[in-house]
Amino acid sequence: MAGRVVTSFVRFLEIIIGAMLSVILVVALGEVLSRYVLGHSLVWVAELSRFLFVWLSFLAAAVAFHRRLHFRVVLLLRAIPESIHPWLELFIDLTSFTFAAVMLAQSLPVINRTSVQRSPAMLIPMNYIYLIVPISASLIMVFIVLRWLEPARTRRWPKPGASEH
Q: What is the distance between the alpha carbons of residues 139 and 119, in angstroms, rounded to a whole number?
C-alpha cells in the first residue's frame, strides 16, 4: 500500500515537472513571436522561465533520487565484492541524507530573509522561489527513509541502481 502511494506521488511530481517544462516552452515561444512579429519583448518571460526552471530542477533531482538515477560511484560498485554493495549503498544514502539535512537547515534562514524581496518583473515574493530548496531536501530525506525501511523490515537489500517502487 505504501509503495503505491509513493509511486503515485512520484508520478504526480513527474506530471508537475512536465507541466513546468511545457509552460517554459510555451512562454519562450510566445516571447520569440512577440519579439519578431510584434516588435516588443515581454519582460516577465525570462523571469518566469528562470523561476520555473529552478523549481523543475529541484523537483527532478528529488524524483531522480527516488528512482536511484542520481550521481553514483558505479565504477566503485563494479570494483568491490557484491557482499559490500549494501554497505556502500547505506554510506551513499547516509551521506546524501546528511547533505539534504544541511541543505534544509541552511535554506530556512534564507527563506526568512527574502520574504520582503520581490522579483523585478513579476513582483513575486522571492521566498516563494527559494521555498523549493527545503521542499526538495525534505523529499530526498523522505525517499531515503522509505528506501531503507523496507530492507530493515525484510532483511533483503535493494539492488544498486534499481528503484524499489
A: 26
CB-based burial, 119-132: b 16+ in 10 Å, e otherwise: beeeebebbebbbb
pTM of the model: 0.84
pLDDT digits (tens, 9 = 90+) for 80-134: 888 888 888 888 889 999 999 999 999 999 999 999 999 999 999 999 999 999 9
68: left (phi over 0), alpha (psi -120 to 50) or beta: left
Output phi, psi for 80, to 5 deg: -105, 160
Cα-Cα-Cα-Cα torsion 120, 124, 126, 128, nearest 10 degrees, comes to -160
